[in-house]
Write a structure and sequence with these properties.
mainly beta, 6 strands, two-stranded antiparallel sheet, single chain
Amino acid sequence: LYIDGKRVPSRPHNFNFAARPGPPYAWLGGMPADATLARAQQACEATLLETRITSRARYDADFTPAAQLTADADTVLLYKFDEGSGDVLHDSSGHGRQAKIVGAQWT
């Protein structure tokens, strides 16, 4: 996991969307206390500008991030957070993995 081009401590995650029945559950910034997972985590206070998840490791060292993220063949999902209102986060990867915004505030 990299934030602003700097590697941060993380653990492996399996985001195999195709293998999961029903909607996939992945939270950005935390997850609700009533989540069906074994352990609820606290939400964080942060400003999310863009998020891209890829099918492979994209970086192996710190890097200078591009001004805007773009989708390519390895992009699984890409959220640009540019909707400005509403509760739907549109996937810019071309895969149609829209997300529901819960408990967040547009700024």
